[in-house]
Amino acid sequence: MPNTPPHPSNGSLTIGDSYVPTSGNGGYAVSSYDLDLDYRVANNRLAATAIITATATHELTRFSVDFCGLVATRVTIDGAAPSKLVESARKLTITPATAIPAGREFVVTVRYGGSPRPVRSPWGELGWEELSDGVLVASQPSGAPSWFPCNDHPSDKAAFRIRISTESSYSVLANGRLTSKVRRASRTSWTFETVEPMATYLASIQIGVYRELVLSRSPVPQTVLAPASIVDRAQKDFADQERMLALFERSFGPYPFGEYSVVVADDDLEIPVEAHGFAVFGRNHIDGLGGSERLIAHELAHSWFGNSVTATTWKDIWLHEGFACYAEWLWSEESGGPTADRLAHQHWARLSHLPQDLMIGDPGPERMFDDRVYKRGALTLHALRTTIGDDAFFELLSSWATENRYGNVTTEGFYLHARERSAADLDELFESWLFSERLPVLPR
């Protein structure tokens, strides 16, 4: 029996990104998420309400949201119950009582709950994760549905309001500005608001027993939340972060958010992770000797490249990781370490001995987090810098980050942006560095 084509008024069950084929949904664009979460750390129980404001991109007789591992107990569309509701392993499919016209704004309210757990993926477990005493949320690229219903794809960015109530003995951090903190007996409610459009994978909540360390109050407030037992080590390790931020503002343009925070979880983590407005490290990354200086610079640089300027599809992840990796090299140069040129040649030599079987402009989902994407992405930028000169290169980086602030971008868009700002012929450079498996020779 032939496959039945989708009804033209149905929102598709995927956004069409082959790297995350079950993520994202068609038929609408989200403008805001309002999340009200009540969480009990001791038994990992969540009771929540999500209010999703969206606009139909065509008439909708049915649509879906990404939702995994929790149970929806009540759903309404503009206050009315849907005619049908189906919850599967990764989707909540909603049939409104009457079709939603194209261009119409509508509000979906979902009450839900359960014991949140990570989403299994080809890249490991993603999303809501219990710590030894608290919670860490790291969703890249497809773990956001582990804790709220959403259109989980970076191309559909939205404003967020996150309110979370939990035991008062814990500190809480979420994205954006803390607008309210109210304690009632043994529980405290924290409310955070993000006005800048944010990708769902960057939405995050961190819960733990932390002490706050203020690194800077101006011009960009910077804080560290760390367990009391390592707060002195953390203060030493993050002491240069203010200088890093100043360098990146000179190189990439103004810091795109209101503040920047770091959380040091009281657990070991494999790698640090970025979120909109903050980054998360494990206690194993903090030694008081600057052992994670490179990683601190990398995660801070994601504020510009990844968190503010976000790839439209996951195949262009080098636009996040290659740029953040190159920021590490710029900081090394600024702080008296090896120059970016020396580091570029060192990493080129190492990559030249590795398999030549990866195009970083489209690495494939299995290898999108391969270290060669990071390093060769940085080498692409260094090759561009060497070719067009420092003045043109840094003007290009700054204008790219500023003109595309809070937006979505593509590799083709970066190529066109670079070509408009340079008299050099860049076709061969971009083709050989991004879309050839063979490692090109660095220009001198």
Automatic annotation (TrEMBL):
One of its GO terms (biological process) is proteolysis. Gene3D superfamilies: Neutral Protease Domain 2, tricorn interacting facor f3 domain. Its cofactor is Zn(2+). Residues 32-202 form the Aminopeptidase N-like N-terminal domain. Keywords: Hydrolase, Metal-binding, Metalloprotease, Protease, Zinc. Its EC number is 3.4.11.2. It comes from the Bacteria. Residues 243-433 form the Peptidase M1 membrane alanine aminopeptidase domain. The keyword Signal does not apply. The keyword Kinase does not apply. One of its GO terms (molecular function) is metallopeptidase activity. InterPro entries: Aminopeptidase_N-like_N, Aminopeptidase_N-like_N_sf, Peptidase_M1, Peptidase_M1_aminopeptidases, Peptidase_M1_dom, Peptidase_M4/M1_CTD_sf. It is an enzyme of class 3 (hydrolase). It catalyses: Release of an N-terminal amino acid, Xaa-|-Yaa- from a peptide, amide or arylamide. Xaa is preferably Ala, but may be most amino acids including Pro (slow action). When a terminal hydrophobic residue is followed by a prolyl residue, the two may be released as an intact Xaa-Pro dipeptide. Belongs to the peptidase M1 family. PANTHER family: PROTEASE M1 ZINC METALLOPROTEASE (PTHR11533). This is Aminopeptidase N.
